[in-house]
Amino acid sequence: MTTFVLVHGAWHGGWCWRRVADRLRAGGHDVFTPTLTGLAERSHLLSPTVNLQTHILDIANLLEWEDLEDVVLCGHSYGGMVITGAADRQSARVKALVYVDAFVPADGECAMDSRPPDRVKLAYEQVRTVGEGWWMPPTPAASFRVNEADQAWVDAKCTNFPIACFTQRVHLSGAVEAISPKYYIRAAGYKAPQFDACVERLTGAPGWTVSEMPCGHDIMVDMPNELASLFQVAGRQA
Predict the structure, then answer these.
(1) 143 classed as catalytic
(2) Does the pLDDT at position 238 exceed 90?
(3) Domains in the chain: how many in total?
């Protein structure tokens, strides 16, 4: 039995992991799918003060207050920023890291550093025109290449997101580097140069296993059975 903590990405919430979590629990595993402050059912907490550090503390504090040990910590997209920071704070509680089409930051980096220039420009334009100077509206599910049957569901669940989460830099002690094994899963059906760069950098790197899945960015929605199986492999190998 393995303890999994699944961290969602920007605009999403714990809801996006439902199918994966159901499959993992059916296999006898403990699964936590926290929603980060200001998103989904916690959207009433959205404010200009919510940033990357807020979300890192959401997860670091979950690990501590739930007394979790030997955790497989998984993060999707922006969630890669969050799990990196949380694992650096709580490295003794984490036995493996899984990045699901996600950012893998180094010390001092922010998500905007590796996003394509056109996406950065669009984000700031949206913040200026509709986001009251501090939040970004959800990216349509179709843009993430979510399968057509689930696009309306995903769009209905996504909520606004503070740009500070993309612009605040992560500060790491280096403790996260000692966690092994680490896994990177790329969504082959979603064009994203920032994630292609992660694949190039991590392929063959010590302690890393890199793979890809033939679907859109929201792998947990498009291919939950296959993703749950990969998570269980990570739990057994850690």
Answers:
(1) no
(2) no
(3) 1
